[in-house]
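Write out the bound-state structure for pyridoxal-5'-phosphate.
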Amino acid sequence: MLLTQSIPLVEERISNACARAGRDRNEVQIIAVTKYVSLETTGLVLQHGLQHIGENRWQDAQAKWEAFGDQGTWHFIGHLQTNKVKDVVGKFAYIHSLDRLSLAKEIDKKAAALGITAQCFIQLNVSGEESKYGLPPEEFAGFIDAIRSREHIRVVGLMTMAPYEAEPEATRPVFRGLRELRDELNRNKVLGYEVPHLSMGMSNDFEVAIEEGATWIRLGSVLVGKE
Ligand SMILES: *Cc1c(COP(=O)(O)O)cnc(C)c1O
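---
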C-alpha cells in the first residue's frame, strides 16, 4: 500500500481509538518501523512527514541511519546485544529494549563517554511468553533499584510486545499490565522523576494499546508496508 493511502487510514484508526478512550490525539505518537523496507522507502517515510523511525537491528539500520540519521528521530526497538551498544547509543535518541543489568551498564558507560544521557524504555515481558525478550515483571522493582544510580540513563517509559492474537482484544491484559507497572513506579517515586511513556501496540493491536494508555505505538506493516 502507498504511504499516501496508509497514513490517512492509520490516522483515522488512531483518532477513533483516542475518541473511544477519551484521550487527546496528541498524547499518542507514531514510530514508523522501517525494518521491512528499503533505504529508499525509509527516505519516503521521512518525506511524508513521519518523523520517528524505528529499527530493530543495527546491521540492517546502519545504511539507513547513515543516509537519513540527521532527519527525524531514531528509535532502537529490537533486542540490543551488549556489543552493539557502542553503535546505537548516540545515534538513536531512544532505546526501547533495556531489559537486563549488563545492558544498562554498557549503555551507561557509552553515554558517559559521549557526555550524554541515554533515554531508555524498560522492556517488560508482561505476557510471560517464553519466546519474547523483556524483564519479567517480578524482577522490575529490583531492576529499578539497581539502575537508579546510573546517571547517564534516563528511564522515559516502559515497553512491551503482546503476543500475536487473531482477536486483538485478547492483548488488552498485557497492555493494561504495563500501564499498571508504570503507574506503580510513579506512585513509589523511587526514581525521583516521573516516567511518562508507554511504548506498546503494533500493527495488529495498536488500537487496544491506545485504549489502555499507549503514548508511543510502533507501526510497521500496517503503515510502512513490507517489501
Ligand atoms: C517489527 C516490530 C514492530 C512493528 O511490527 P508490525 O507488526 O509490522 O507493526 C514493532 N515493535 C517491534 C519491537 C518490532 O520488532
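---
The chain has a mean pLDDT of 97.
The chain has one domain: 3-219.
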